[in-house]
Amino acid sequence: MLISYNWLRELTDTKLSPQEVRERLTNVGLAVDAVEERDGDYVLDVEVPSNRGDCLSHVGIARELAVIEKSQVSNLKSEVSDTAGKTIDFASVEIRDPDLCPRYAARIVRNVKIAPSPEWLGKRLEVLGQRPINNVADITNYVLHELGQPLHAFDLAKLTENRIIVRRVEKDETITTLDGVERNLDKEMLVIADATRPVAVAGVMGGEDSEISNVTTDVLIESAYFDPASVRRTAKLLGLHTEASHRFERGTDPEGVLQAQERCVALICEIAGGVATGDALDVYPSRSNEEIVSVRPERVETITSLRVSTDEILRILKSLGFDLSEEASTKLTFTVPSCATTLRLRKI
User: Which domain range does residue 124 map to?
Assistant: First the structure.
């Protein structure tokens, strides 16, 4: 995964040089294979283990760097100020196969102006090896690299009956994906459909028939959680490995769906204009339960042979994005936004 040093510096105010960042990240298990200078920036090629989906973003890597430097990651501004109407007034969402899609959120931005991205946005994507497309598409890609949550933008006018139906493939269905290739689908694949046909391969790639164009005025922003095994199988059978599938295959955060969508919509309103609906149409039939992990600080030394004080444990967890709240006189509770896990610590 490619990481921009300048972007990391904005998030953490790091004082380390690119080579020092490479060395320090490698020492904590995130091997940096190379550092390359590109257009006034340095790009780090980070090898993220398959079980560290929380690190497949700039914020994820920034958290690791914050632990190393005893700092905090900057808060991202993502508040949508100008809104009108509710999403349900303009579109509908139905999940027919919640085993493959436990959560799907849609939000609409109307009266956008599709244009080339501002220079800073295009340059940021180009440094990471991505070709700028247009302001709306580029913003979805920007947020993917920033937060690790893939998003997709549909032209609302191209969705029949303004409907989103998340379902398995029906008999003999095909789709022409954004790369211009017509693809045969099998019955176990998950698609995003409108009232009549598939408009995207869930978690992998959008369809050509519903893509954003220069005449688009209203967009529907998708943010969802898809079953990792389903996305992995579909991507392999179709021979499509994308930035989105890479992250969904390794597990994204179902509790981060709305945060990323809010960030994306706020940037669209700022850069492409338009007015967003005041809420998301969030279909979440079976909410995920927080996993509870009990940690005994005294066991840290026993298991690792490292003597780590309770204060240091707390500092590390906070830098990694845990929210601290006191649950009881003998326990501290941390909620991890990157993986929706709750960690309980007993006081010594």
Answer: 87-283
